[in-house]
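Agenda item 2: 5-phosphoarabinonic acid complex prediction
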Amino acid sequence: MKEIKFDFNSMFSFSVGRHGASEADLMSMLKPAALAHKHLSKCLDSQSDRVALGLEWANLPFQSKADIDKILQLSRLISRFESVLFLGIGGSYLGLKAAQDALSQPYYNEFPALRKGRPKIYFDGNNLDPQTLSVLLRNLKPKKTFVVVISKSGETTETKAAFEVVRQWLKRSIGRNYGRQIVAITDPEHGSLRRLVAEEQAKDKLSFRSLPLLKGVGGRFSEFNMGLLHLSLIGVDIKQVLNGAAAMYQRCSSPDIFKNPAYLNAALHYILYRKKGKSISILMPFSEGLKSTADWYCQLLGESIGKKYARKVVLLPEGTERWVADKNRKVNTGITPVACRGTTDLHSIQQNNIEGQNDKAITFIRVDKFISDIMLPHNCGIISGKSYSGLLKLAQEATEWALVRQQRPNCTITLPEVSAFYWGGLLFFFELSIAFEGELLNINAFDQPGVEGYKNYMYVKLGKPGIAPEIRKNINSSPLIKKRRFLI
Ligand code: PA5
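Presented output:
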């Protein structure tokens, strides 16, 4: 079977001069990489560490057949509906959207022949823009729509707001059994969504059916947990996705960074960030279907690596670890993620990539074989008789060349095809690579304390009970400064 290929040549100084990593730079990473591998493997090998630290995602490729069968059963029940509306944001949305665009055919909702009897899929609750949900609810038929609400915490404002509106919409048309058209994917114990599920289930077992999110799996690492129902609904073989992830796990278990693509990717990005000032990471798939995978990657990188404090590892008496923010070591580590799309963005952002500030590392994703291809007719000049996919690959190669000529570091990941297996492997590669980069940077890649700031501000303004007094005081005593002369 073909493997995903990784080409790191254009990240090195022999290709891009002083803007690239030298082989000596990489050799100097061998010791820190060995230490990072030792620590990460120790944590991954211990179930209690995995759960406590948020590393349980690494076990998701090995889910049991029984667990998957439960999902398939639920999916069969839902698939008789005309439409399924998924509500969620962040990690409770981006993985699903990435899968939808990568693994179902383009225009899936528009053409029945592509859906083969499966429901149309809609996403909402990923913004507070009132327009999208209004249009959806004016046009979807409540009796023919199934709703899947996804929120790990069960508290996120965007998802909660959308769910409340959608719930009333269903109830108005269906009556008391409306909850039979709802599945909730949420924490097994905590949060208001979980409480609602428990209340509704106590009244009617067929109402508000639920799938639990596994403990120790953070939102942005959870596609292989919370995304499985969606995958099955669009006809993707879940097992293939998980097998692809498991194969990547196997491939990336070597301590030798020269044999381990996730480690080599992380080490090179670490060098480019720390030594060469490349604080922007662009992911540019040359495939329309993989653009949303780049959006998913933006959350993974942004929330995992953007951290104010260094990590302090605290060893508990029973041997498990806790990672806490070391308030004495402010580091403000962060690499800004950007999602791009080849060839579309060669006609926009690429000008800046080539001639703007040299502060970026670019990762291309290239696809060897597309499900369909188009041959150009024989009367169209230099592109006569060429295939679309051939032109696309040539455009990617040309982009790499043009970047190298301007000393812009970049690397290329090549998928044999965009299938369930390789897509699963691709996501898992990025997850492992980010986990390893977090180790090298000594930050906690599995929390997101910075996201709390805006949430707390909204909660205080909305009068949410239970907000800590110091948080309330801080928000109330430091309003935004709005000078009249700068309000034009
Ligand atoms: O990575 C994360 O944990 C977050 O970005 C969440 O995915 C996001 O905030 C949504 O949270 P929830 O699933 O609790 O609604």
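Discussion summary: Residues 89-92, 151-153, 156, 159, 218-220, 303, 448 surround 5-phosphoarabinonic acid (CB under 6 Å).
Owner for follow-up: CH.
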